[in-house]
Amino acid sequence: MEQRYISLSGLGRELLTPDGLNEAIAMLVAIAIALVIGRIVRRAVVRTQAADRGISAPWQTQLLEAGAIAAPYVVAMLLIAAARAVAESWNTPDTVLVFALRLIGALATVRLLVYGASLLLGDSSWVARSQSRITLLIWLALGIELVGGFDWLESALDQVDLLPGKSVFSLWALIKSLVVITLFVLGMSLLARAIERRVMAIDSLAPATRVGISKSAYFLLIGLGILLGINSAGVDLTALTVLTGAIVFGLGFGIRDITANFVSGFVLLMDKSIKPGDVISFHQHTGTTSDNFGWVQELRGRYVVVRDRDGVESLVPNQSLITSSVINWSYSDQRVRLRLPVMVSYDDDPEVALELLLRATDGHPRILRDPAPVSRLISFENYGMKLEARFWIRDPMNGVNNVRSDVNRRIWRLFKDHGIKIPVAQQEVRVLEPDARALHPPHLSGPGDADPRR
Length: 454
Prior knowledge:
alpha+beta; elongated; 5-stranded antiparallel β-sheet; SH3 type barrels; 3-stranded antiparallel β-sheet
């Protein structure tokens, strides 16, 4: 049975011997040949993909890509294994070749796993963008583990007991448990994201159903990852009673709002009051206004992404949509009614003005004929009569201010052509001349101001 670790000092001593130098040369030659063959295979795959032009199934293209990735590693491992067989037949040491074989095998495994994760998450994921960095980081950690580089760290941290007493829970056990749990949670998170990507691509399901399945799978897998990580780490939960109590206490006060947002997100998914594609107005605005108006892009675990007509995406917490008034313009029917108020002078005929308001809505492609537009005389104000044009549209997601603008411009032209005046509020200021008697009352007059007739 082969050793679990290969001593770094022993590896260095063997490299200084003639047999070790021969092993190193054989290893370098095998790697060089593997790189050349890998480049040839890569060029052949690129030519095949260029000639294919989407004819083959996606899985065939992905299989070719995986073969191109694995080719240099497989060739290097075969050549090094052959060199090791020769060394064993000659009864010469093979420590360097064994170490190289393990390193290349670990690198090939990590590289293929990272490539598989990038396929599951899509080309736009952070895994797909950082495949080389992730592979190198994990491979270096595995290489250090192969030479026993973590032994000294383990022995040092294992001496620090975090819970003195009957139960032994060292600092190394804590770090090991956190690392194992993190790896399980990360793996389950990648799997959940892959499931979400596949489910969201199913057009036969309703958007709210797709989001509900995705979020349920995500939280279920994350919880499962935490439990599996704790079990794999071999943590004695009875030794963490105090720590668990502190965590629960912190959850109650520190992340109360985060928990409320997550629960509110599930409520939104269950009652389907807001779903992707809906047109909403929020921040407690009422009426058919365009302030804080936008389209629901996606429902996340903590917030809802709302995109307005300026291209700005607002991240609205789920709790705000549950506890505050929200106008869902497309909840049961996407048709909405718009109202355009306008003032006319008392010198004009209101019947003519009402007829012109109806004419202003004629022929617009987005204004519905059923129900038909109407015009109303609303009230008599201080400086004119208040009229209103009312009409319906069925596509508020295409904007409402553009329809308002079109109709208002036609109203202005029609009123101008027919001499209808739109009054503005005016105030009249009267300046009165002062009375001389008011400025000089008789009882305030002096001796010199006596009447000369007296």
